[in-house]
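Hey, I was hoping to borrow your eyes for a little while. I'm sending you its amino acid sequence along with the backbone structure tokens. Take your time with it, there's no hurry, and the full record follows here.
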Amino acid sequence: MLNNDIMKDKGAYVSPEIIEKVIKASEKNMQHHLLLSFLWKTGNRVSEILELKFKDIHEDLGKISFPILKKRQVKGEAPRMLKDVPTSLIEDVNKWRMFRETYLIEQIHRYREDAYIFREFTRTDERNKHFTRSGVYRMVRRYFGRVGINKVGDGLPHPHLFRHSFAVHFARNSKSPHDLVVLKNYLGHSSINMTMTYLQFTQQDVKETLDRMFKEEK
């Protein structure tokens, strides 16, 4: 089975500046904007984000309880990971909830805390169904296209490149070997070897680091 957490395509990531442009391009659609923000700010797999319900948001702790679907047993629910997330992300979830309670009161009232955060809304189907993965793939391609990007690395833009981009950005900003362990745990990798693949993208920063270490005296 193909493991998307291993970056075989070394070009399958983009800079934080491009990610921010893509997210900004979605501002007119609150749900799309929030979903793209989740992909970028948590580094989680798209399937794990789509499974989230409002009851998984722990605002008092500043954390979100994510399912780890790759560790799901044959029967029963997937194990969960309580993760720290940026305060701004929880604030955006609350804004989305308020919007739904105001303008989509029938749906959100019916399901309350058990409602999926990211929902499919149709005129004919009011069941509590989460947004589809195929829908997210189309969404990502659409908003990348709006900022003039139709290809990333060897293929089309896809949701998992947010996870790769998050990991590359984290690795480049690491200050100690322990940070790699932090990244492993945060991404839910089963092996540190998977996380270490992102170190290859820090090599271009070597000259900058050496210049800081051995700054010439003026």
User: Anything to note?
Assistant: The mean pLDDT is 82. Residues 87-103 form the longest helix (17 residues). The radius of gyration is 19 Å. The beta strands are 57-58, 63-67, 80-84.
